[in-house]
């Protein structure tokens, strides 16, 4: 059956939480309050659905989100406008099937019409070279490193310039054409408005 990438629905947050916390040590655990925070503040919060099951998700937030992540704050201290990929999780039995590449192609398409940069981090731990290679194949480059406060986890801070963004910003400003594929997620705190990353 085909894989569908779509916005998460509120009743699916428990499934997202369970998927996250079963992902293993390369993904930080979260609780119900954190997944609710993402529901309320993430500009991009989409799931992969196949055969009626959620098999993965990706969460990304703009620089304006009231996010307490030290990695998010690292980018916020250095860059005025960006979309930050907080986490991507693929269900273990479905890894290696292209869902990660589908998510990154989708989030990049979403970001490039709104922000000049797409950011994320990768844990620098033994056996995580595939994650660095994956991001490198999408054009991300390292712009710094940090040890996450209160942990011994060193992370590589990665960034990708959105090449199309200057043209789109100059041509359309914050008023994108009214097309379904350009629609922004209606955040609960901003119902009735379109999130444009401004």
Automatic annotation (TrEMBL):
Species for this entry: Arenimonas metalli CF5-1
GO molecular function: acyltransferase activity, transferring groups other than amino-acyl groups
Organism placement in taxonomy: Bacteria, Pseudomonadati, Pseudomonadota, Gammaproteobacteria, Lysobacterales
Pfam families, sorted: Acetyltransf_1
Protein name: N-acetyltransferase domain-containing protein
Residue span, N-acetyltransferase domain: 3-164
